[in-house]
TrEMBL record:
The lineage of its organism: Bacteria, Pseudomonadati, Pseudomonadota, Gammaproteobacteria, Aeromonadales. Gene3D superfamilies: Aspartate Aminotransferase, domain 1, Type I PLP-dependent aspartate aminotransferase-like (Major domain). Its cofactor is pyridoxal 5'-phosphate. The keyword Transmembrane does not apply. It comes from the Bacteria. InterPro entries: Cys/Met-Metab_PyrdxlP-dep_enz, OAc-hSer/O-AcSer_sulfhydrylase, PyrdxlP-dep_Trfase, PyrdxlP-dep_Trfase_major, PyrdxlP-dep_Trfase_small. Keywords: Pyridoxal phosphate. The keyword Coiled coil does not apply. Pfam families: Cys_Met_Meta_PP (PF01053). SUPFAM superfamilies: PLP-dependent transferases. Belongs to the trans-sulfuration enzymes family. This is O-acetylhomoserine aminocarboxypropyltransferase/cysteine synthase.
Length: 423
């Protein structure tokens, strides 16, 4: 099946007289008829649901759909995108280990890596894409367990050279983990370029209607945990399951099963059936939406590129953008999502004035909504920073992040133009 078909038909399949819409299994628990049947569940001999922290049929349908879209062997929904990155890393790294992370990642991921993982004893080093292979490899240590990057970085909007970093990771027997949130599997399939694990914030384009926070971890099934010398936890007995060995019992599913039965079991950052229903509803129209978001954003970017009040537009779909070549390689039909950044002349005050004068677009701490929304980091997420500190994080005082929605293009552009007139 092609993606649009998978978005509608993968996962839940109604049986004879079954409901056409995916049912919500609003139940914490599932009934079994014998102690033996329950014992088998705890020995991981069967994979039927028994408690919704570890698996729920509604969540499972959506996991199957997302795994099919990414071309993976399995997936696990999580309570948020942050929880997806957390569980993916903790499945392969523990205190004393090290992660190599791209410096252009989502702010929440940056904090998780730079602050919270460090507090947990997992050391993280950041690298720039502009570094040579040798420079990046020099940062890989014997205890390094993964390289992490973002397909289309939020908010930098740079494109990660997945193939290049997959090759570096594999040379050192470690997996490449990709946050594919902004691109979605419709615009990019990181596994096709060598990535081993994908995470998403489903809060963004998967849901797409700003109704549900969520995340997902997807396993390509391609990384050979037994062949690498770096992952003893995959090839030695897990005492919490009577000495079960993940690679022996689950083969290509070793990573995603370990993520669920060990990390999700113990941390509990699971998704609810009701939430999975919303995410599924969003995914059904994802191919249509992401295409239109991208087309509208490109038109807005082109319109603003020569606007006298704007000094710069950042959008990888523009030929002048430093990521343009990579967008051709990694993104379907060169579509680059609905998110772009504009730098308004006049700094912090001008940026604030612009936000205060839009009427249709909604000032919000969100992106990837079906409705146009925007945010001025210098007076919102980064308001505590001085102009100089802002520049150090690559954010100019007049920068506005714009998430272009599915309103009529003429209305979006008129709203922006009218607000710019007031600046
Ligand atoms: C929003 C976002 C996250 C975090 O997701 P939440 O669902 O808000 O926890 C992670 N990565 C990227 C690229 C994001 O945009």
């Amino acid at each position: 099946m092609k993606d649009s078909t998978k978005c509608l038909h993968s996962g839940y399949k109604p049986g004879n007289a079954g409901p056409g819409a995916m049912p919500i299994y609003q139940s914490t628990t599932f009934r079994y008829e014998s102690t033996q049947a329950i014992a088998d569940l705890f020995d991981l001999k069967t994979d039927t649901p028994f408690y919704s922290r570890l698996g729920n049929p509604t969540c499972s349908f959506v996991e199957q759909k997302i795994a099919a879209l990414e071309g993976g062997v399995g997936a696990m929904l999580t309570s948020s995108g942050q929880a997806a990155t957390l569980t993916a890393i903790l499945t392969i790294a523990k205190a004393g280990d090290h992660i190599l992370c791209s410096s252009t990642v989502y702010g929440g991921t940056f904090n998780l890596m730079a602050v919270t993982f460090k507090r947990m004893g997992i050391d993280v080093t950041f690298f720039e894409q502009s570094e040579t292979d040798e420079q990046v490899e020099a940062k890989i240590k014997p205890n390094t367990k993964a390289i992490f990057g973002e397909t289309l970085a939020n908010p930098a909007l740079t494109i990660f050279d997945i193939e290049r970093f997959a090759n570096i990771a594999h040379k050192h027997e470690i997996p490449l983990i990709i946050d594919n949130t902004f691109a979605t599997p419709i615009l990019c399939k990181p596994f096709d370029f060598g990535a081993d694990i994908v995470v998403h914030s489903t809060t963004k384009y998967f849901d797409g209607h700003a109704v549900q926070v969520g995340g997902v971890v997807v396993d390509s099934g391609k990384f050979d945990w037994a062949k690498s010398s770096k992952f003893p936890e995959f090839v030695t007995p897990d005492e919490s399951y009577h000495g079960l060995v993940y690679t022996q019992t689950f083969g290509k599913l070793a990573f995603i099963v370990k993520a669920r039965v060990q990390i999700m079991r113990d941390l509990g950052c699971c998704q609810s059936a009701q939430a999975a229903f919303y995410i599924n509803l969003g995914i059904e129209t994802l191919p249509l939406r992401i295409r239109k978001h991208s087309e509208n954003a490109l038109a807005v970017a082109k319109h603003l590129q020569s606007h006298p009040k704007i000094s710069r537009v950042i959008y990888p779909g523009l030929e002048s953008d430093p990521s343009y070549e990579l967008s051709k390689k990694y993104l379907t039909d060169g579509l680059c999502s609905g998110v772009l950044s504009l730098d308004i002349k006049g700094g912090r005050e001008a940026g604030a004035k612009f936000i205060d004068n839009v009427k249709l677009a909604s000032p919000e701490v969100h992106v990837a909504d079906i409705k146009t929304c925007l945010l001025h980091p210098a007076t919102a997420t980064h308001r505590q920073l001085s102009d100089k500190q802002l520049e150090e994080c690559g954010i100019t005082p007049g920068l506005v992040r714009l998430s272009v929605g599915l309103e009529d293009l003429d209305d979006i552009i008129r709203d922006i133009d009218e607000a710019l007139e007031k600046v």
